[in-house]
Specification:
Elements: H1 2-24, E1 27-32, H2 37-49, E2 54-56, H3 66-72, H4 81-96, E3 104-108, E4 128-131, H5 147-155, E5 166-170, H6 174-177, E6 186-190, E7 196-206, E8 209-219, E9 222-229, H7 234-249, H8 254-259, E10 272-275, E11 281-285, H9 291-302, E12 309-314, H10 323-337, E13 340-344, H11 349-357, E14 365-368, H12 371-379, E15 387-391, H13 399-405, H14 412-415, H15 421-424
Parallel strand pairs: 1-3, 1-4, 2-3, 4-5, 5-6, 11-15, 12-13, 12-15, 13-14
Antiparallel strand pairs: 7-8, 8-9, 10-11
Helix pairs in contact: 1-3, 1-4, 2-7, 9-10, 10-11, 12-13
């Protein structure tokens, strides 16, 4: 009954969203990819919002229900049927009355199951598609016939581009770069080797502790400097580059787009720097986990110079037949980039096993069943200057470990992911 009710609500919201698009005719930017979608979506919003009237998908709501919520400008009702009824009523008013409406919509789309994008969201007709990265082994691959099927699903929005539309793609992703666009569409590349790229990347340091990242963005003969505080890692640079490239696709000058990042706040749970207990530093990357994202995060951990480097890795879920090998790969990478490996969950035990197989000392490999168990142990061994990377799939709830390790856990509501009342009861 619950599934039937949900399908009915999604159907009605989608009908309303299609009517709203037909009436107000906003221009649409779709953000797709296997990794980095939300950070890139937020960066794109930052770049555009001081120049245009723009609305973005909230948080990481990128499913068949997230897109109509964005179009209608209403919140997720979760399990509150009264809220859903109010959403439907508000959508109807938007259709019947004339109301102020954004010039641009930034809609994040994602695939959990086959057809989530190609069937459920093909009614979106974008002027711009920003494509992040499409690694061979991505999250949700266990629900598809093959890794290639996941890529095909997530690449679908590039085929929806309207005439004279623009594809903004990560230059490092061969699958996206080689996508055959229809006649009249153009492509802008960003990232390493792209038209929009970064130079002079460096970590901002204060009193020996990393506080953010600095880099210059280059496009043709233009250059602009950007500082992002409270985050670390190449993934944030890529997201900003994707956001700026999307702004350039609209004709915005580079400096105008770059200046907007002076107030940019990246989303929680994505390589966020948080002060930990005993003057340690936490790298909170707990929103989700995929093989390529874990490797990137471990590389960033390995670049830290002060104190011990501690990797806390939870299970990567929904990898199906690829799970054991990908966890083994993460364990081998951890042995190269971390001084201590802490695993959480049954699947992550394979990472611990592989780390031991390649020579990591037994005293440096710790295994726990839950994020809370791991954090309670770490509280007793962390010291000044230690850097702790925490990462795992959403279902592992690794943000609970971050909260226990924070110097000021009362700030969790503002800094961590999944702090809504709905999530806290799960």
């Amino acid at each position: 009954m619950k599934d039937t009710l949900r399908r009915g609500i999604v159907w009605l919201l989608t009908l309303e969203a299609q009517a709203v698009l037909k009436k107000y005719k906003p221009k649409i930017i779709v953000v797709t990819g296997s990794v980095g979608k939300t950070s890139t979506k937020d960066a794109l919003y930052t770049a555009l919002s001081k120049t245009y009237s723009v609305r973005k998908s909230e948080k990481s709501f990128n499913s068949d229900i997230g897109a109509p919520l964005t179009v209608l400008g209403v919140p997720n009702g979760w399990s509150d049927i009264t809220r859903w009824a109010r959403n439907l009523f508000d959508g109807l008013l938007l259709i019947l009355l004339n109301a102020p409406y954004p010039q641009w919509l930034i809609v994040e789309v994602g695939a959990d199951r086959p057809g989530d994008i190609s069937r459920s969201l093909a009614w979106l007709k974008p002027n711009v598609v920003v494509a992040t990265r499409f690694p061979m082994i991505s999250v949700h691959v266990e629900f598809y016939d093959s890794p290639e099927a996941v890529q095909k699903e997530e690449l679908a929005p590039l085929g929806w581009l309207l005439p004279h539309g623009t594809a903004v793609v990560n230059a490092a992703d061969e699958v996206a770069v080689s996508y055959p666009l229809s006649e009249g569409r153009r492509m802008i590349t960003y990232g390493a080797g792209g038209e929009v790229h970064a130079v002079h990347q460096k970590v901002a340091i204060e009193e020996g502790t990393p506080t953010g990242i600095r880099f210059d963005v280059v496009h043709k003969n233009e250059r602009a400097s950007i500082t992002l505080l409270g985050v670390i890692g190449d993934a944030h640079i890529e997201s900003v580059l994707g956001g700026i490239a999307g702004a350039l696709a609209l004709g915005m000058p580079l400096h105008t787009a770059a200046e907007a990042f002076s107030t940019h706040v990246p989303p929680p749970g994505r390589m966020r720097l948080i002060r930990g207990v005993h003057r340690s530093t936490l790298i909170d990357d707990t929103y989700n986990a995929s093989p390529v994202a874990v490797m990137s995060a471990l590389k960033t951990l390995g670049e830290q110079k002060s104190g011990r480097r501690i990797a806390v890795l939870g299970d990567m879920l929904e990898l199906g037949a690829y799970s054991a090998q990908e966890h083994a790969n993460s364990g081998e990478a951890a042995s190269a980039h971390a001084d201590i490996l802490v695993t959480v969950g049954v699947r992550a035990r394979r990472a611990a096993e592989r780390a031991l197989e390649v020579g990591m000392l037994p005293d440096s490999v710790l295994q726990f069943d839950t994020a809370t168990d791991a954090a309670e142990h770490l509280v007793g061994i962390l010291g000044e200057g230690d850097t702790v990377l925490l990462k795992g799939s959403q279902g592992m709830r690794m943000e609970r470990a971050v909260k226990l390790l924070m110097e000021r856990p009362e700030e969790a509501k503002n800094l961590l992911c999944r702090q809504d009342a709905e999530w806290l009861t799960r």
